[in-house]
């Protein structure tokens, strides 16, 4: 059964293709349109569909829209109520609901040949839940928590997976929403709402939760699987921070206090759910599940023996979840994807053609992993473009910026390269078998969705990846699933004695992550990056900009002079 999943209504429009329970492709529209998050989450943009992402997903399987058996649209307008009756101030929400009801027609226009009758409305939080419960390995019998800003009429879902069946257990009705509270704080601190919440999480590490007693009056669990989260008097707690204005200790303390209230509420929700199911595995989805500090506390203090987080936990992941839910309902047992690399990729020949068309001087070394390790050991910053793009917001060794973790100045250097705030940390990637001696936390951690305490004896050895609170958000790497990255890490350790490399997303501030070769070349040309590793090829900055004339640059021959092009 060929099912296309679509997320479109709020933000992060995306598409995913599932055939007989197997995930074939998944991609966010922002990677094609080059608009961060695809669009802003306002009612007037609700009609915008992930047309390019959907067309690409179909092309991966050689399908036309007419070949589809079903389309899952991850919002069900029949479950929604007028915003004012839910305590929300959103006077144009009725426009959003109109667009949702007309989605089958809009989709048939965007994908000519699609029968509108094949479009199925999937409840938003059930799509989130399916994206996690069905994609997690070893989760055939498991519990799932979904928390985000809002769905049709709720902001949370507790559910249980048993085999192919996904049973909803409880949902918290709006206006109470942990996601909306965190969004309000994001705006109050001068960041972009429904975009920069991860900055608030980073800022919280610089503060103390001295305002927690006041926050608890407005954000707290109710003990019955639900919670209260609304009406926080932000202005009374702390003056607002204007966009671009320097934050103060009071702002950091407010962030820390809100983060603590969020964590306490999540722990109570997990304990209630475990009391209902007694499962060993908890899976998480929804935008709140991207809060890796809260995830780590759940794993550390919660009642479940294992916590698994969907790497595309935000609304983009509902495209995949909607398709998996329909597939499971049709009798196809969903197979967990092998990784998050579900997006676009190019063959070596295609990459070489891109480089020749761009008239870029490049080399084909004998082993790109060894060449990159040597460059990193020499303190170069490397743009790493390999394999299929990641689905979700984390760079996981396919579209990454890499650097030496032992140079304390590389945190500031990378934040300057990316044009972002200096209080934000960068992450380490580490060989999985080396991780336990360096990092204390949930292992393995292949999707960078937990924080780990860095062992004291290692903090001075890898200072670039240690956050102000002594933690790091790590990615563990297995040689059988990521052989090229593992080979690079092994070579880097041989050269430096460090089994860790800095890994942050390959983009600059306000831009989506690099996706195709043109994006990679544009980023490399506009940011002070020393080397671009694209497939088996490398481009060096000094040759790229030789004499200000890339077309006249002379390349340096790689080992055995393989594939050097002028």
UniProtKB/TrEMBL annotation:
It comes from the Bacteria. Keywords: Transferase. CDD domains: ASKHA_NBD_TobZ_N. Belongs to the NodU/CmcH family. Residues 373-541 form the Carbamoyltransferase C-terminal domain. Residues 2-71, 119-324 form the Carbamoyltransferase domain. Transmembrane segments: none annotated. This is Carbamoyltransferase. Its EC number is 2.1.3.-. InterPro entries: ATPase_NBD, Carbam_trans_C, Carbam_trans_C_sf, Carbtransf_dom, DHBP_synth_RibB-like_a/b_dom, NodU/CmcH_Carbamoyltrnsfr. One of its GO terms (molecular function) is transferase activity.
């Amino acid at each position: 059964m060929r099912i296309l999943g679509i997320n479109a209504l709020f933000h992060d429009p995306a598409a995913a293709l599932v055939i007989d329970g197997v995930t074939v492709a998944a991609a966010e529209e922002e990677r094609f349109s080059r608009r961060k998050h695809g669009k802003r989450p306002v009612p007037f943009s609700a009609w915008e569909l992930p047309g390019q992402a959907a067309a690409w997903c179909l092309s991966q399987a050689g399908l036309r829209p007419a070949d589809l058996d079903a389309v899952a649209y991850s919002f069900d307008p029949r479950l929604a109520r007028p915003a004012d009756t839910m305590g929300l101030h959103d006077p144009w929400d009725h426009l959003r609901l109109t667009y949702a009801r007309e989605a089958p027609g809009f989709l048939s226009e965007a994908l000519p040949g699609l029968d509108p009758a094949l479009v199925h409305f999937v409840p938003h939080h059930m799509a989130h839940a399916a994206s996690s419960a069905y994609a997690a390995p070893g989760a055939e019998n498991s519990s799932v928590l979904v928390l985000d800003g809002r769905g049709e009429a709720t902001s949370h879902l507790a559910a249980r997976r048993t085999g192919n069946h996904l049973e909803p257990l409880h949902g918290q009705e709006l206006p109470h929403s942990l996601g909306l509270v965190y969004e309000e704080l994001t705006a109050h601190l001068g960041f972009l709402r429904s975009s920069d919440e991860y900055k608030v999480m980073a800022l919280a590490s610089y503060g103390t939760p001295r305002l927690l007693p006041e926050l608890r009056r407005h954000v707290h669990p109710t003990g019955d699987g639900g919670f209260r989260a609304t009406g926080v008097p932000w202005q009374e707690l702390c003056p607002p921070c204007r966009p671009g204005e320097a934050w103060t200790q009071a702002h950091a303390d407010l962030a820390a206090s809100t983060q603590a209230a969020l964590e306490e509420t999540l722990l109570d929700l997990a304990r209630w759910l475990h009391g209902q199911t007694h499962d060993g595995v908890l899976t998480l989805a929804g935008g709140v599940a991207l809060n890796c500090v809260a995830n780590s506390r759940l794993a550390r203090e919660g009642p479940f023996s294992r916590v698994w987080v969907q790497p595309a936990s935000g609304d983009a992941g509902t495209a995949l979840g909607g398709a998996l839910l329909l597939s499971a309902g049709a009798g196809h047992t969903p197979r967990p994807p092998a990784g998050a690399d579900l997006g676009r990729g190019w063959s070596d020949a295609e990459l070489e053609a891109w480089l020749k068309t761009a008239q870029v001087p490049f080399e084909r070394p004998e082993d790109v992993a060894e060449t990159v390790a040597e460059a990193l050991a020499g303190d170069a910053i490397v743009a790493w473009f390999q394999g299929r793009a990641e689905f979700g917001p984390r760079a996981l060794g396919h579209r990454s910026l890499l650097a030496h973790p032992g140079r304390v100045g590389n945190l500031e250097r990378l934040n300057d390269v990316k044009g972002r705030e200096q209080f934000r940390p960068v992450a380490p990637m580490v060989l999985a078998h080396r991780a336990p001696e360096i990092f204390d936390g949930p292992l393995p951690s292949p999707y960078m969705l937990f924080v780990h305490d860095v062992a004291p004896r290692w903090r001075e050895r890898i200072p670039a990846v240690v956050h102000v609170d002594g933690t790091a958000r790590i990615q563990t790497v297995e040689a059988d699933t990521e052989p090229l990255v593992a080979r690079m890490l092994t070579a880097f350790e041989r050269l430096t004695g460090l089994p860790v490399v800095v890994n942050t997303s390959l983009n600059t501030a306000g831009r989506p992550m690099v996706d195709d070769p043109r994006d990679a070349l544009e980023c490399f040309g506009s940011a002070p990056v020393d080397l671009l590793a694209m497939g088996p090829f490398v481009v060096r900055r000094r040759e790229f900009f030789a004499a200000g004339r890339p077309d006249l640059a002379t390349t340096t021959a790689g080992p055995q002079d393989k594939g050097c092009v002028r």
